[in-house]
Automatic annotation (TrEMBL):
Source species of the chain: Chitinophaga ginsengisoli
Protein name from the UniProt record: Lipoprotein-releasing system ATP-binding protein
PANTHER family xrefs: ALPHA-D-RIBOSE 1-METHYLPHOSPHONATE 5-TRIPHOSPHATE SYNTHASE SUBUNIT PHNL, LIPOPROTEIN-RELEASING SYSTEM ATP-BINDING PROTEIN LOLD
Keyword terms: ATP-binding, Lipoprotein, Nucleotide-binding, Translocase, Transport
Annotated PROSITE patterns: ABC_TRANSPORTER_1 (PS00211), ABC_TRANSPORTER_2 (PS50893)
Source taxonomy: Bacteria, Pseudomonadati, Bacteroidota, Chitinophagia, Chitinophagales
Family according to the record: Belongs to the ABC transporter superfamily. Macrolide exporter (TC 3.A.1.122) family.
Amino acid sequence: MDDIILEARHINKYFHDPVDVKVLSDINFSINKGEFVTVTGKSGCGKSTMLYILSTMDTDYEGALFIDHVPMANKPEPELARVRNEKIGFVFQFHYLLSEFSVLHNVMLPGLKLAKYPAQEIEKHAMERLNMLDIGRLAYKKANQLSGGEKQRVAIARALINDPCIIMADEPTGNLDKKNSEIVFDIFRQLAGERKQTLLIVTHDQEFAARTDRIIKMEDGRIIK
Ligand SMILES: Nc1ncnc2c1ncn2[C@@H]1O[C@H](COP(=O)(O)OP(=O)(O)OP(=O)(O)O)[C@@H](O)[C@H]1O
């Protein structure tokens, strides 16, 4: 029981478009520390919608969400922002790097926001993450000078800067070729194995999903398996 890091209890979600449409029905599951979990299902089944709720970025839902045993529903936004910064690293499909800033600065930003360490220390941590992902040599390049695979690794380094207990990613290999997908998979596997970080990854890539600890399969807004 103590090993649970994320728990969703009977979550429902409606879009008002303009009439109410139910897009998530009774989402009910938990994830343990250090688990490497993927979410799969056809386009439009609700994967991204669920991930946005579980990451606390979307608060318009019914049901309960616990992160590290703390209830998230009805928490004010500044508190949720703090939980996100401290506990969750999010990797978006399209990176959302600041293109005119250096790679190093992009990776440092969530650390500077959390302000748990002085800037010099955060810079050191950022370099460690970049080296771990084998892209230390890119630290002083601008983000818009990188390839897609390199950008994705920078986005992962940025998600790791505050040592989150959970890393969530929406299609992190969606734009990558096989070699780069493989690199990203190996990084995630290493984070779950050696650092006991929890991974929750939305993916269409069946090969990728098949090699993770658990697959959550969705259909029409429900978890079917
Ligand atoms: N802002 C919105 N307003 C109304 N409906 C929405 C909105 N966002 C998503 N939807 C609908 O909710 C459903 C779930 O969308 P979601 O993006 O979660 O699916 P998905 O499984 O992640 O799809 P994909 O694999 O294509 O990214 C879809 O039917 C979509 O059209």
